[in-house]
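RECORD TYPE: inverse folding
INPUT: structure tokens
STRUCTURE:
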């Protein structure tokens, strides 16, 4: 545990990053990245389980500003108060993952905080009954990257909250012509 509540399985402050076949469990952050617009981050075949400090400000994975973030073939579940996946990348490729709060107390399953060009394809995204946020996917809620294009294709979205949920929350400024 860290004083700044950002003790991470991987805390990345460099250039490109590739993570494969890893498990991140019981960290304050599973992965926390800080990068630049030219950085590429690839995470595949990994599990993220019960990460987060419990204050709503830490997540299974937090991808800071970067050029491209690709998450594929991963299982992210049961975050403590935070999101299963939060990204500020200019381009996001969220492909063929299982994102689920199942029995956890997480917030959103997927937050694409600053929009950008995002492809959400072939995932199973499940909001658990104890989720603290009615939004399952949030796009552009904390500002806007250039080229706001969102593609949500062939996903299975499951809501287990008894009081309803918002499948997809899009920042209103992104939808104006």
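DESIGNED SEQUENCE:
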């Amino acid at each position: 545990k860290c004083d700044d509540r950002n003790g991470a399985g991987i805390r990345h402050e460099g250039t490109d990053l590739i993570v494969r076949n890893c498990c991140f469990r019981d960290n304050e952050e599973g992965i926390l990245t800080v990068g630049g617009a030219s950085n590429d981050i690839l995470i595949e075949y990994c599990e993220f389980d019960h990460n987060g400090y419990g204050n709503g400000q830490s997540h299974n994975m937090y991808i800071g500003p970067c050029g491209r973030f690709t998450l594929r073939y991963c299982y992210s579940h049961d975050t403590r108060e935070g999101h299963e996946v939060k990204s500020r990348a200019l381009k996001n490729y969220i492909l063929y993952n299982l994102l689920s709060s199942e029995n956890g107390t997480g917030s959103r399953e997927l937050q694409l905080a600053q929009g950008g060009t995002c492809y959400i394809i072939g995932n199973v995204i499940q909001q658990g009954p104890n989720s603290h946020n009615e939004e399952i996917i949030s796009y552009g809620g904390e500002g806007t990257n250039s080229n706001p294009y969102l593609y949500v294709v062939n996903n299975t979205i499951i809501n287990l909250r008894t009081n309803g949920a918002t499948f997809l929350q899009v920042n209103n400024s992104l939808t104006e012509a």
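NOTES: The chain has a mean pLDDT of 90.
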